[in-house]
Structures are given as C-alpha cells and as structure tokens.
Amino acid sequence: MRVALFATCVTDTFFPDTARAVVRLLERLGCAVDFPLDQTCCGQMHFNTGYPDPAAELAARYAQIFADYDAVVAPSGSCAGMVREIHPGLLERIDRTASGVPTYELTEFLVDVLGVTDVGAYFPHHVTYHPTCHSLRMLGVGDRPLRLLRSVRGLRLTELAEADSCCGFGGTFAVKNADTSLAMLTDKMTAVIDTGAEVLTAGDNSCLMHIGGGLSRLRAGTRALHIAEILASTEEDPWHATP
Questions:
Q1: How far apart are CA 30 and CA 150, in angstroms?
Q2: Do the domains 2-113 and 126-232 sit in the same CATH topology, yes or no?
Q3: pLDDT at 242 over 70
Q4: Sign of CA pseudo-dihedral 205, 145, 79, 167
Q5: 184 closest CA partner among 205, 207, 206, 200
Q6: How many other β-carbons are positioned within 10 Å of the β-carbon of residue 44?
Q7: What's the mean pLDDT in 197-202?
Q8: Is the separation of the CB atoms in 59 and 90 below 8 Å?
Q9: Residue 49 has what pLDDT?
Q10: What is the percent of the chain where pLDDT is above 90?
C-alpha cells in the first residue's frame, strides 16, 4: 500500500515532530510512506473565512498531488474532515472531480485500515485525551483514539470530564470571538487540570496549541502532545519531555 502523509499547515509549520512521529509509526507497522514535497494547505482556513474560490483551487491542487496513492493519512481530524466533507463541493464549483484516493485521520487509518489497536507503543506517563470537534462530529472517530491509548504499555489514562465540549479554538473563531473562546478554554483547562495528568493528548495540533498555550501560561505542569507522538514512542525510542 502506497501511503502519503498530508502533514497539514499547523503541523508542518509549528509541530514537525508530529509529522516525523507519524512516519516512524506507520513504517514500524509496515507501510511505505511518502511525503509529497509540493503539498500545501487543504483550504480550510480560506473556506471558513468566506473565500470559497481560493479554497477550491487548493482542493484541486490537493486532488492532483495525492492522486497516485492508495491512501492519504493526516494527523488532523480537522483537515481530514475538510478534505472528505468539503472538497467535493468545492471541486464542483470549478468543474473538477476528487481524485478518489481516501483521506484518513491517523487513528481511523490505524484501526480501520491496518486493523490494529496495539501499535507496540510504550509511554509510561499519566495521560488525558481531548476529542477535537471535527474528529468527533464530522469524522465520527468515536473511541478509536481511546482504544489505541489503552493499549499503550505503561500509560495511565484518565478520561476528561465533559470531553466532548469544544476547547474554544475553532481556527479564526478564537481571533474573531476572543472573549467567548477564552471562556471555553478556561472550562477545558479546568477539566484537564482536574485529571492530574502529565500529558494532554488529542488528534489535532491546532487544539493542542490552544489548550497547551493556556496551560503553559498557568504553569499547570501538563504538557500538550499529539497522539501520534505517544503511539510512536517505544522503549527503544522513547519520548523525552523537554523543558
């Protein structure tokens, strides 16, 4: 199976370790992973802020770049949801069709395509999990991330209270509605802190950046870390917390 990594803008720009972790993890599970160097944005930011035409051009570019692969894997429910649910309508605007290559959020690909929940990970830390809005509501990933986390050796999982509530990020929502976003973030951080977890994980770096930034400013002692980095961690290649 020829698998392509769609890193996404936020991951590529701010969290490259997540992209590297996805490659390590998938290669460990027997996948040949390519990273097309001419990939760009999925167009979600443009679409959500009222610019469908530039978003459609980016959707067409995505379809062209990933046309020759068997599957595309993204470490983002938000971007995977954009590709699967929004791209087809955008491409109709410019008389283009989607490539037909399925795009998966990482945990979907692991559980549904590769058929694994135990990926051989080792992560001896106390963890809580935030299900991001797009992964939960648009993609319906359900308990796949939790099933993967429960199979990680050494990991202690405490589920988050009111886990399905939004963290308040929502892309440009956090900029345009800062007060509301901050109130939602405060509720989410309270729930995270109440778990006593060392690590907050999720499937979207955008939400982790939002919540993790707030936790850092509070000096709460909880690190934000993408689930790919937990699943890629092994005894031979462990994750090391950095200051």
A1: 22
A2: yes
A3: no
A4: negative
A5: 207
A6: 24
A7: 97
A8: yes
A9: 87
A10: 80
Residue spans of the domains in the chain: they are: 2-113, 126-232
> CATH classification of 2-113 is 3.40.50, yes or no?
yes
Would you place residue 8 in the very low, low, confident or very high pLDDT band (cuts 50, 70, 90)? very high
Strands 199-202 and 126-129 come out as: parallel
What stretches of the chain show up as alpha helix (H) in DSSP? Answer: 9-14, 16-28, 44-48, 52-65, 77-81, 87-93, 106-108, 133, 144-150, 173-176, 178-195, 205-218, 227-232
Residues belonging to the chain: 243
Residue partners of 116: CB distance under 8 A and separation at least 6: 29, 110
Both structure tokens of 32 = 């040949």
- Which residues are 105's β-sheet partners? 74
> For domain 126-232, which architecture applies?
3-Layer(aba) Sandwich (3.40)
pTM for this model (two decimals): 0.93
